[in-house]
Specification:
mainly beta; hypothetical protein yedk fold; seven-stranded mixed sheet; five-stranded antiparallel sheet; 12 strands; about 10% helix; globular
Length: about 230
């Protein structure tokens, strides 16, 4: 799964890496947690370009009567994302990329869990990860709207298997355009190709190290969260 991540690059770097027309307002975050605002990149059909968008982390289906449902939908299983009622429409029409400098996973050791920070290995194509995500707009009884998103997961690769059985789907730059699409409804053939992108990221392009339990509390922030534990 993916339940906590970081984003600590400059707005200019992010705009360049994801081909945005403008650099977004962005501050370093080292402990992004579920139900908090997160940023993602999507294709805006009206503007015919990629845009930066903020949303609640935890997808709220448009048909939901209760927005609290989103707290249970921070992740979507890649194996069934095109079938589950909560995600299938967003998979067809509202895909996005969630940038992350790294993410955390907790490894069971004895009677406790040790947090690990996972980030791109040095010298790899991108200085950050691009998680495959979905987004949705929920309209409340009063007509107010709330955008939300989820991160798709898949089986763990060799590195992640030491920590957890699941991991976020991470896309390579060559796959960005296909995943984001053009904003129009995807065809069945398009969806078949998209499913091919839902796979474990190469383990050799990642690194991991243990960090302190300081990161366990969502309210804790700063680079201390990713410091290697002695």
């Amino acid at each position: 799964m993916c339940g906590r991540f970081t984003l600590s690059i400059t707005p200019e770097q992010l705009a360049s890496l994801f081909e945005l027309d403008a650099a977004p307002l962005l501050a370093p975050r080292y402990n992004i947690a579920p139900t908090q605002p997160v940023g993602f990149v999507r294709f805006d059909a009206a503007a015919e370009s990629r845009v930066w968008h903020l949303a609640h982390w935890g997808l709220i289906p448009s048909w939901s009567k209760d927005p609290s449902l989103g707290a249970k939908m921070i992740n979507a299983r890649g194996e069934t994302v095109d079938e589950k009622p909560s995600f299938r429409t967003a998979f067809k029409r509202r895909r996005c990329l969630v940038p992350a400098s790294g993410f955390y996973e907790w490894k069971q050791e004895g009677s406790g869990k040790i947090p690990y920070f996972i980030s791109p290995a040095p010298g790899k194509p991108l200085p950050l990860f691009a998680f495959a995500g979905l987004w949705e707009t929920w309209t409340g009884p009063d007509g107010g709207q709330l955008d939300s998103c989820t991160i798709i997961t898949t089986d763990a690769n060799e590195l992640m298997a030491e920590l957890h059985i699941r991991m976020p789907v991470i896309l390579a730059p060559a796959d960005f355009a296909e995943w984001l699409g053009t904003g129009r409804d995807a065809t069945a053939l398009d969806q078949a190709r998209l499913r091919h992108l839902i796979r474990p990221f190469p383990a050799e392009q990642m690194q991991a190290w243990p960090v302190s339990t300081y990161v366990n509390r969502p309210g804790n922030e700063g680079s201390r969260c990713i410091e290697r534990a002695i």
